[in-house]
TrEMBL record:
PANTHER family: CHITOPORIN (PTHR34596). This is Outer membrane porin, OprD family. GO terms for molecular function: porin activity. It comes from Pseudomonas graminis. Pfam families: OprD. The lineage of its organism: Bacteria, Pseudomonadati, Pseudomonadota, Gammaproteobacteria, Pseudomonadales. Belongs to the outer membrane porin (Opr) (TC 1.B.25) family. Residues 1-21 form the signal peptide.
Length: 455
């Protein structure tokens, strides 16, 4: 934990003591979550050394402790949230142990093999006035259209900085903040942020926006974000749910991202280190429009989803990496597990996210909740996505890719196993992209989850 964050945590604790424990402790909650992950990634029989390096079979155990305090009494309330993470490698790793290989489950040692264990701790000091809340610390996990904290492996990605959320106006939620560093889902360290292909980091990500509930069935969104020296981004969103009858509804979800270069990235000098690489991009400069439309019809336990997504030709969609890739990594330094990001799109799938330059994606999903058949806690889903018209250079023919995802979840509802969850996921990706961009891949995940709430 950095000194600044630790000081804030101590200050909040002192204030809480002075103001009295009522509220601060009475409204607090503490949980300990356990996650066991078996992760298997097979790049098929691709002869590429890069693809072979990604071949991975690994089992790991993670523990996540969260203490969420209430607020001290008074006009201005003070609180403190504390978080601790611990990961253990149980077996396996990357078959081809190259120091530059990115292990997606755990940090790696100097020879490229997974470390035996790793840990990370953080805290957020928080202040609340009326319906406005400020959090400052290094355990922030934003879930916003312009930034989604990644939690797709063993432990969640966290950010350092400050976020303020206000609900003073009925039906309007305003959010703004500044983030300075991030810790990856498989890392013990905090580092600057960047884009894919960039090996210099930025410690300044600023954003602001809001969600307005026009009616009980219609929500509109606008957000602005800026990762200094990389990109500026505007987001517009609309979500509408049309009730048809009992157990029937039709949902429309529209999203649009407009992204342009900022600072060093706009200089069009590839060697500055602030470049962007996601499919074709002129000199590594950010220049992108991405829009997507999703329509979901729900009938009883069934949900049918269809959608279309379009990425502009001039460059792929910028998605923040949780940390910069250092020059040492580029020249053969070891990767410490910092990789992994999420994006606010349905196409953010198990293996890829269909956001390459020029890509046009058609997708669909069917899901079913077996509670309707008397089996509460059991859910299943299957999705298929097909993207084409991918631009990989100024002159090359267009490429395509498709992915099929299947998911099965079960959470025990009673007895000694109550709350224990099992998730099985399987994905297949096939592509005719150049090998350096993406290899055919099969991926399997088995996840065991349990959360114990202290009383």
């Amino acid at each position: 934990m950095k000194k600044s964050t630790l000081a804030l945590a101590v200050y909040a604790g002192v204030l809480a003591t002075q103001a009295g424990a009522a509220g601060f402790l009475d409204d607090s909650k503490a949980t300990l979550s356990s996650r066991t992950l078996y992760f298997e990634q097979d790049p098929r029989e691709n002869p590429s050394a890069r693809a072979k390096a990604q071949d991975q079979r690994q089992t790991a155990q993670g523990f996540l402790f969260n203490f969420i305090s209430g607020y001290t009494p008074g006009t201005v309330g003070f609180g403190l949230d504390v978080q601790g993470m611990y990961g253990i490698n149980l077996s396996g790793g990357i078959d081809n142990r190259l120091p530059t290989t990115a292990n997606t489950v755990s940090p790696t040692s100097s020879d490229g093999s997974p470390v035996a264990d790793w840990a990370r701790a953080g805290a957020n000091a928080k202040v609340k006035l009326s319906k406005t809340e400020l959090k400052i610390g290094n355990a922030l996990q934003p879930n916003l259209p312009i930034l989604v904290s990644n939690d797709s492996r063993l432990l969640p990605q966290t950010f350092e900085g400050g976020i303020v959320t206000s609900k003073e106006i009925d039906n309007l939620t305003l959010t703004a903040g500044k983030l300075t560093q991030a810790a990856g889902r498989a890392s013990s360290n905090y580092a600057d942020m960047s884009l894919a292909g960039g090996y210099k980091g930025s410690n300044n990500f600023q954003f602001a926006g809001g969600d307005y509930k026009v009616t009980k069935d219609l929500t509109v969104q606008y957000y602005y974000a800026n990762l200094e020296d990389y990109y500026k981004q505007h987001f517009l969103g609309l979500v509408h749910v049309l009730p048809i009858a009992e157990d029937q509804s039709f949902k429309t979800d529209l999203r649009y991202f407009h992204s342009t270069s900022d600072g060093e990235n706009s200089n069009q000098r590839v060697n500055t280190g602030y470049r962007f690489a996601n499919g074709y991009s002129d000199n590594g400069e950010v220049d992108n429009n991405t829009w997507t439309a999703m329509f979901t019809y729900t009938l009883g336990g069934s949900a049918f989803l269809l959608g279309y997504q379009s990425v502009s030709d001039d460059g792929g969609m910028p998605i923040m990496n949780n940390t910069s890739v250092t020059r040492d990594n580029v020249n053969g330094g070891r990767n410490e597990g910092e990789g992994g990001n999420s994006v606010y799109l349905f196409t953010d799938s198990m293996i890829t996210n269909f956001t390459r330059a020029g890509e046009k994606t058609r997708f669909g999903q069917y899901s079913y909740d077996f509670a309707r058949l008397g089996v509460p806690g059991l859910k299943a889903a299957v999705a298929y996505l097909h993207g084409d018209q991918i631009r990989t250079s100024a002159t090359a023919e267009r490429s395509s890719e498709w992915e099929r995802d299947m998911r099965l979840d079960y959470v025990f509802q009673d007895g000694l196993m109550k709350g224990f969850g099992i998730t099985l996921r399987r994905a297949n990706l096939r592509t005719d992209l150049p090998v350096a961009s993406q290899a055919d891949t099969d991926q399997t995940r088995v996840v065991l989850n349990y959360t114990y709430a202290f009383k």
